[in-house]
Amino acid sequence: MTLLGCFTAAATIPQKYINENVRNQLFIASIIFGFIHLILEIRQFIYRIKKWFYNFWNIFDIIAYVLPIYTSIYWLKTIDKNNSYLIQLLSFSCLFLDIKFLLFFRAFEYFGVYFTIIISVGKKIFSFLLVLFIIIISFAHAFYILLSPKSDFSLEKHNTNDKDPNNPWNLAPSYSQIIDNDGNISSNPFMFQIPDKNTNMFIDIRTSLFAIYLFLIGDSSALSNWPYADNPSIVILIILFSLLIVVYLMNLLIGLLNNAIEEDNNRVSYLIQKAEILAEIELFYLLPHQRRWQTWFPEAIHYNADADKTRIEIKRLIKEGEWDTKEFTEMRENLFKVLSIEHNPIDNEVILEKLSELEKLEKSYHEKLEKFDKLEKLDKLDKLEKLLEEIHAK
Hints:
Layout: H1 2-12, H2 20-47, H3 49-54, H4 56-77, H5 84-103, H6 109-124, H7 126-147, H8 168-171, E1 174-175, E2 191-192, H9 205-216, H10 232-264, H11 267-285, H12 288-291, H13 307-319, H14 329-339, H15 349-393
Helix pairs in contact: 1-2, 1-5, 2-4, 4-5, 6-10, 6-11, 7-9, 7-10
Keywords: Coiled coil, Membrane, Repeat, Transmembrane, Transmembrane helix
GO molecular function: monoatomic ion channel activity
Protein name: Ion transport domain-containing protein
């Protein structure tokens, strides 16, 4: 939180409200606190390298610490404080730090359940998202080949002889003049809107991919510069993209998300996450003498349980046949006495049902053995008859 406060204040507060020396000191403090957190993260990495890579939050933590450190150093070293590169660094650093602050709420059950769902569901649908991404790249590639300009052009100079329909100058809006009272329009436009790199987003494969992403979320403006009546191939690709991805795969994704959320929406997943957070704090954030404090880490931990809830849970376990085990027999008997529960393992309905099922299985097994013995006897009789027939024939 201190790192977030120092860096956010230095990056956000306008110059008229903060002195430049104070801003520099805040950036220096951000570097110090950032390195402290980074050292703790490196300790986790050294402790278990493979497990560190499997945890998504560790990768996010590294970015959230390294980026503000680099940005703060770059701010202190550079003279031009208004260059676009520095502003972009400040923007993304604040974004990652804000999300990192939000991750501290994972330890609280009210918020932690949702973080657990987010990560577990993301892991389950990752392969599906990968397939979806490959299909989107395929469509972006197809549109790029179809709609990219086939001749050289310059956005600063108009070539009137270029008839390429994908040339941004031919796609930009043009304005013609009415030459007489009959409404006839001049064939030579007298005014052009100067095109830019977004006039034809399929000039580059990167902007082509972004144009398809925009089309996926409902923005088809990147494809509106071509008349659909004259370009049936564009229409075919749009229809295929709409049916395959927008209609089928996106609805399938929603169904998969619903199923995954129902599976992972439980308290057990949150408790596992909380245990991992506590273990991480004890291993890497506490000093050695703090780990030896008896008040924090007692040899025995006593729990208080509600008698009525305990009685209900024990009866449920007995009913489902999960109570009668060989572990902690004395403790179980004491619980029966304290909670006034009458239980006879011999009369347990679940056990009796299992015994009856075993008896049925044993009976069916013996019946099958008898049938098998009869079949063997019949086979032997058949062989004996054949042998007698051969003897008589000789």
